[in-house]
Design goal:
- 17% of the residues lie in helices and 37% in strands.
- By secondary structure, the chain is an alpha+beta fold.
- It has one domain (2-266): Endonuclease/exonuclease/phosphatase (Deoxyribonuclease I, Chain A, 4-Layer Sandwich), CATH 3.60.10.10.
- A 6-stranded mixed sheet has the order 5-6-2-1-14-13.
- Strand 5 and strand 6 form a beta hairpin.
- Helix 3 runs parallel beside helix 4 (201-208).
- The longest helix has 15 residues, at 165-179.
- It is globular, with a radius of gyration of 17 Å.
- The relative contact order is 0.16.
Length: 267
């Protein structure tokens, strides 16, 4: 089983992301920065705030679901606001997380909730925006074996990726939600764009509950691609239970499918 996590950047690099995703055909795919169109929309829309001006797929959730027709799809909306089309007209859009699980695998338990804030339906608003998390218990019917997989997109702070009280609270909520599905015994994976530095207190806290950082374990020093121009190269992490520390893990820089690199674990 391969488990993949990626900040998809709203599908901005769709011409590379689409063939990569179809060829990879992951057993479990966890994407952050996923758009969903609640109304009929053009293929592309634009998101603008004081920090970013991005072209995004209007319905990346549907796009990925079409690429993976033999997968079950789960969406976790965090916010609903408006993006603009080429004519400058406002178009409703949702933003959140997506998880896709191979159809022949059994999703026997799901937990989905907010680890910061609550659903924001009246626009994107100021940072920090609400953050959701998804966790699934996934079983292989033939053997009865199962793995718990979760992911979240951590708080963004214009001041940087350092520890803050809000991030500490986010960590505790993430652990609490993950434990609703994970009994501490089964193999477990918790991944995502955490928006943290490697020395964050969050990783010590995660380790206390039995989740170990593969980025540090493998000495990886870059989880971004050439499309990200800032010098700070850490954002994405994958944490695993003890029994998965020796599993094959990769953070490939090619192909460039986002300004983040994918995290790929083979269990």
């Amino acid at each position: 089983m391969n488990i993949v996590s990626l900040n998809a950047w709203g599908g901005k690099v769709w011409e590379a992301l689409a063939p990569w995703g179809a060829a990879l055909s992951p057993d479990v795919l966890c994407l952050q920065e996923v758009t969903r169109a609640p109304v009929p929309s053009p293929d592309w829309l634009r998101y603008v705030d004081p920090y970013r001006d991005l072209a995004q797929r209007a319905d990346l959730f549907c796009d990925i679901s079409a690429l993976l027709p033999h997968h079950q799809a789960l969406f976790a909306p965090a916010t609903r606001g408006t993006l603009t089309d080429d004519a400058g007209a406002a178009v409703p859009s949702e933003h959140g997380l997506g998880m896709w699980v191979r159809r022949d695998l059994a999703v026997t338990q799901v937990a989905q909730d907010f680890i910061h804030g609550t659903y924001r339906s009246d626009g994107w608003g100021e940072e920090p925006v609400p953050r959701t998390m998804q966790v699934a218990r996934i079983a292989e019917p033939e053997t009865g074996r199962h793995v718990c997989v979760g992911h979240f997109h951590g708080l963004r702070d214009p001041a940087g990726k350092g520890d803050t009280p809000a991030r500490a609270a986010q960590t505790e909520r993430a652990i609490s939600l993950f434990r609703q599905v994970w009994d501490g015994q089964a193999p477990a994976v918790l991944a995502g764009d955490f928006n943290l530095l490697p020395g964050s207190a969050a990783f010590r806290r995660f380790k206390e509950v039995g989740l170990h950082d593969l980025i540090a374990h493998h000495g990886i020093t870059d989880t971004r691609t050439a499309l990200y121009e800032k010098p700070q190269r850490f954002a994405d992490y994958m944490l695993v239970s003890d029994d998965l520390l020796t599993a094959r893990f990769d953070v490939p820089g090619q192909p460039v499918v986002s300004d983040h690199r994918p995290l790929i674990l083979e269990v």
